[in-house]
Amino acid sequence: MRAVVYTTAWELELRERAEPSAPVHDEVMVRVRATGICGTDLGIIGGEYAAKPGVVLGHESAGEVVAVGPSVRHVQVGDRVVIDPTFHCGQCRLCRTGRQNHCQRKGETETGVSADGTMAPLHKTTERFLYTLPAHVGFEEASLTEPLSCAVTGANQLRLRPSLRTVVLGGGPMGVLYAWVLAGLGLTGTLVERSAARRELCREVVDRRWTVAESLDEVCARHASDATPLDVVVDTTGRLAGEALTKLSRGGQLLLVGLKRHEVALDVGGIADRSLSVQGSIDSLDGSFATALHLIASGVVPARRLVSHRLPLASFREGLALVGCDVGARRQGPPAGALKVVLQP
């Protein structure tokens, strides 16, 4: 089968790979019908997020079951499913203390990072990481379950109330999904995106009670009498934490979810004196994957509207270029008028 294989930074290709072996025990083979291009993929390609050389990329995916092991009880051949890529063993110290998203086996089992992912026609997983899709949910929108689950996880880390002044930095798919999750919790706020083309896309897909702005300064100008006007900031870019900290009100909260190598000098005394909270978040946790699927299936989050482009797997380089990743030139730039790009193996 043909799969998108990562070798090292800026080196990846569509390569012939052997099909996964037949399922045994509780294993399930899934024919991948949709797999999204994710910010993590871009980080891996650009050398900002470590991945195993030779790994098949991709982890946001849905498809149909084509084979099952003899111990499988809850799915069967022909079932339409979405794949939870956040493997956890359930037995290590971190799993047993409620940190399954940081399972100590993650270094060998993380889908699309340390274990083969879903940018391929076939993917093998185990039964407990599959969720059956309702008949009305398509593969493309289902592939957004995983990033939405990350947004649910992150929102659960915050102390929220509807009256808090809220900003989400970054108008990519993750930023839009965070805006929807926060809107569902009653918060109104602003999504900040510096790309004009993507700002227009964001205005079409965010909750109508949310606004879209070009910069953090533009948002703060609305509260000119308050030097530190923001209560909650979610930084999906991985680049704006330092600026965001200077805009937080006393008792303000900063959630960091962008996987970028970016260092910021911290005034520890100032953080303590102003009662600021800085929190990181990654992956699904505490049932957030099931919650995300429910939000999509119930129409609370209109995931289908986020998919701006659909391409065959062989056109993965074109898909990457649409989100600003030029593999040939080895550079990451602004997205070319795309939001979520879904590949179809």
UniProtKB/TrEMBL annotation:
- UniProt keywords, alphabetically: Metal-binding, Oxidoreductase, Zinc
Q: From which residue to which does the signal peptide run?
A: none
Q: What is this protein called?
A: Dehydrogenase
InterPro entries according to UniProt: ADH-like_C, ADH-like_N, ADH_Zn_CS, GroES-like_sf, NAD(P)-bd_dom_sf, Zn_alcohol_dh
- Cofactors per UniProt? Zn(2+)
- Where's the Alcohol dehydrogenase-like C-terminal domain? 181-297
Q: Which domain of life is it from?
A: Bacteria
Instruction: Report the residue ranges that make up the Alcohol dehydrogenase-like N-terminal domain in this protein.
Output: 26-134
The family classification in the record reads: Belongs to the zinc-containing alcohol dehydrogenase family.
GO MF, one term, reads:
zinc ion binding
